[in-house]
Write a sequence for this structure.
């Protein structure tokens, strides 16, 4: 389950944060600046899940998504993200 706090989305496992995404929120867009997944939890799609949640948040607020974090642009390059990609 994804938890949202100010400028951060997190995934916890047994009360330990195992993945997170950090973003800056502006009037017209979210800038995703970092993603991280603990090494032993990688390969499960957790970072992608967090990016998709950020995209969902942006859509709900009528905002775009900017991917300063290098992980993000390949995730949102597909046509289904044309409405939110900057």
């Amino acid at each position: 389950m994804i938890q949202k706090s100010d400028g951060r989305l997190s995934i916890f496992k047994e009360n330990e944060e195992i993945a997170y995404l950090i973003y800056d929120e502006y009037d017209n867009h979210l800038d995703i600046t970092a993603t991280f997944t603990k090494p032993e939890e990688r390969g499960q799609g957790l970072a992608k899940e967090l990016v998709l949640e950020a995209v969902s948040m942006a859509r709900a607020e009528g905002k775009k998504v900017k991917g300063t974090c290098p992980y993000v642009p390949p995730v949102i390059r597909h046509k289904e993200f044309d409405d939110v990609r900057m």
User: Anything to note?
Assistant: Residues 2-81 form a domain with the Aminopeptidase fold (CATH 3.40.630.30). The CA atoms of residues 37 and 45 lie 9 Å apart. The longest strand covers residues 16-25. The two ends are 27 Å apart (CA to CA).
